[in-house]
Amino acid sequence: MKPKYFLLSLLILKLLAKNPNANAQSVIPNNSTFQPSTETSSSVKQLNILADGETGGQGEGENFYLKSSVPTAEGQTIQDIEIRFIDKEGKPTEGKTKTRIIRQEFKLQPGDTYDAELAELGLAGVNELVGVKEATLALEAGASVNEVVMVVTVEENSSFFFSFGSTLQPPTALQGSARPVTVNAMSNASRGIGSGVRLGATNLGNNNQAITLGIEGGEKRFGLDFDYRKFIRHDRGYGMNFFNRRSVEPEFDGGETDVELIGGDDIWVHRMGGGVEYFLPITRQFKSSVGVTYQLVSVRDDLISDQLRNVDELGNTLTFSDDGQDGLLTATFVTALDRRNETVNPTKGYRLLLQTDQSIPVGDASISYNRLSANYTHFFPVDLFKFTKGQPTFLVNFQGGTVIGDLPGYEAFSLGGSKSVRGYGKGELGTARSFIQATAEYRFPMFSFNMFKKDFDIGGAIFFDYGTDLGSGDTVKGEPATFRDKPDDGFGYGVGLRSISPIGLFKIEFALNDEGDTKFTFRFGDRF
């Protein structure tokens, strides 16, 4: 990474950094018969956008590790629940969000006995609403000594947002560019340098719904994704999207031998389609989504081309249909268990992601398969190489997947890259029906500095990755890994620098692989 690009990144951070949140204060009269704690908040940023398709968010969601406690007043009766809105300076203002949307997050109602645990759960739900930037909860004395008024103070989000990265927060069952993958080796990636942005409007009609547009571009890709979602409550609702993406995918690229289309053109995979989903929690800890997506997948010779291709220059099959275009209908179920203490930079806890995709035969291609994938990460706080304040962390990650049934190359798993086995380029290690991937990484704080009146925490990392296709490369239709001489298994190791900035994480990594090759990468977001 050249110094000028690093400085450019810092300038971008300056433009996007926001002012600290302001809190309102509520006062309990001295003659009250209970002693509540200070007003508490739970800052949760909704509609989190992930950088470059990463599966790690930039905000905080409801998780196992509670960060704060709400006021205690056990045995008191709730006289009323008041909703108050403030601006960014903490001054009272007229709110836009309908108060019923905020009230319905609490299981407590006027006339109920106050319960601190239920109050905290409700506050966490309010903070995850798309229209809410930050909410706090306080108690005020009621009409009698045994009554309290529960006051929820809300600072609302801006109605519009812009962010680097084009991927929605998991879990989502939608396909296309908006889908955060359960395993990093999932298809629908792209080769070459590129990134994306997402912009949109939140809290449409002051009714807890949002529309967003993702735009991605790069050396070998271009894509658009339009997404709409309606939140019935903070953790459930429905969504739909439309996408059009064109890229050189790693399933048909990388390896020791280049195999192109007849005439020497790159193999471009075009995907256009849309889907619908319903998301809800299975339990208090498991968030899930179920959805259906239809897409037309075609192979062409360029970003913009009307020439369909169904074989490469060696005559290997690229699509199931003879005309070079497949119809693909899939039903998807995905679930996530997140018990990390943080989302941006976790130091303890774990996260489990599970997904299954069932294709339903349609059209000439009539593709039928079931894809299973799993991803587990565990974070352990340790104390080695501690140069400054902060918690060093050791993490282990295990990912795996398999496909049963028909498997076109564009739906296979791709091994290698900054989100897979580092030290290899994207897709250079393998194109697989089944795979296992493991990572061990040690992260430690190094130093901090202040720039543009914002704090930047710099940390280091040491990592080791391993991946294997379990000998399944030759079972993918057209055998893209075999004819490109991909090694099928290998490992990589290296070091990196990480910066926690006001808009999230960005990192620089240097890695070597078992064949002696090296890779240097710079990216926003985390892979775990």
Q: What does this entry look like structurally?
A:
The protein has about 525 residues and is mainly beta. The protein is built from four helices and 25 strands. It has helices at about 5-15, 100-105, 115-125, 480-485; strands at about 40, 50, 75-85, 90-95, 130-140, 145-155, 160-165, 165-170, 195-200, 210-220, 220-235, 235-245, 270-280, 285-300, 325-340, 350-360, 370-380, 395-405, 415, 430, 435-450, 455-470, 490-500, 505-515, 520-525. The two termini are about 25 Å apart. The relative contact order is 0.12. The model is unreliable at about 1-65 (pLDDT under 50).
Quick take:
The chain has a 16-stranded antiparallel beta sheet with strand order 7-9-10-11-12-13-14-15-16-17-18-21-22-23-24-25. The chain has 528 residues and is mainly beta.
